[in-house]
Amino acid sequence: MLKFIFSKSFLVNIAILIVLIVVVVFLIDKSLDSYTNHGESISVPSLEGLTETEVEAILSEKELRYEILDSIFVDKKPKGVVIDQNPLAESLVKKDRKIYITVTKIAAPKILLPDVIDMSQRLAVAKLESYGLKVKVEYKPSEHQGIAIGYELKGKSISPNEKIDLGAFITLIIGTGKGDGKVMVPYLINLNKEGANQLLQTSLLSLGLEIYDETCVTSTDSTVAKVYKQTPGYGANSVLNIGSSVDIYLTKDSTKINTQNLSLDSLAM
């Protein structure tokens, strides 16, 4: 038995079998490589901000395909550009892989203009903004003071429930009443920007410059900062024409905020 195992013919047969196994494995591996394009991965390019035409040209050159997965309205983005993609940029994929993209709508969707007539300025502005509209306030003589009496789009009067573009600029008309058109400047010290803006709107005034000191570095800082100075300031003789603006100075430093004794600067007109 041992003599047969170590015979020349047996060893030759074993060698032939090993060679056949190696050849078969090699052929299988090559066929799999050919089928799956093994080792030929493509890096997905960044498509963000590109138009569909640009996307098609870039992906075609890399032997990739694309499909628009969704189209959404984004007010502050250019129209018709990519804002998201899957797979992400720099992902490795095979040739002919489909890249799914989300693009911004070419045209803004239509909405019905909400009815804010007879609302206070603050409530009217808040409601219009909640519908995705941008609001500019103008004041006109009216029997009612501080009440919304109408609105305009591109200089033309419009009515509630008319169809308009989402994100459109609306001019809200607020009545000034029958007085002399002047109002007292409100006391804004120790309010944050949002509180100051609301109080100014209630007083038929608008927010002017927002000036932050060195303590306000991040957007969060700006949100919690308080008014330590205003121009014009608050006082018995501090009056402005309806619609005038008031500048505010904000800080996170509580030692700058004196709510008891206002500085001469903050009282000055």
CATH top-level class of the largest domain: Alpha Beta
Element pattern in H and E: HHEHEEEEEHEEEEEEHEHEEEH
CATH fold-level label of the largest domain: Trypsin Inhibitor V, Chain A
**Count of discrete alpha- or pi-helical segments spanning 4 or more residues:** 7
Please state roughly what percent of the residues sit in beta strands, choosing from under 5%, 5-15%, 15-25%, 25-35%, 35-45% or over 45%: 25-35%
Question: Whole-Å distance between the termini?
Answer: 118 Å
For the biggest β-sheet, the strand order reads 7-11-8-9
* Helical proportion, percent range: 25-40%
From the structure above, extract its key features.
269 residues, alpha+beta, Trypsin Inhibitor V, Chain A, 3 domains, four-stranded mixed beta sheet
Please characterize this protein's 3D structure.
This protein is of the alpha+beta class. The chain folds into three domains: 63 residues, Trypsin Inhibitor V, Chain A (2-Layer Sandwich), CATH 3.30.10; 67 residues, Trypsin Inhibitor V, Chain A, CATH 3.30.10; 86 residues, Trypsin Inhibitor V, Chain A, CATH 3.30.10. The protein is built from seven helices and 16 strands. The protein has a four-stranded mixed β-sheet with strand order 7-11-8-9, with helices on one face. The chain is elongated and about 120 Å long. The protein starts with a helix and ends with a helix.
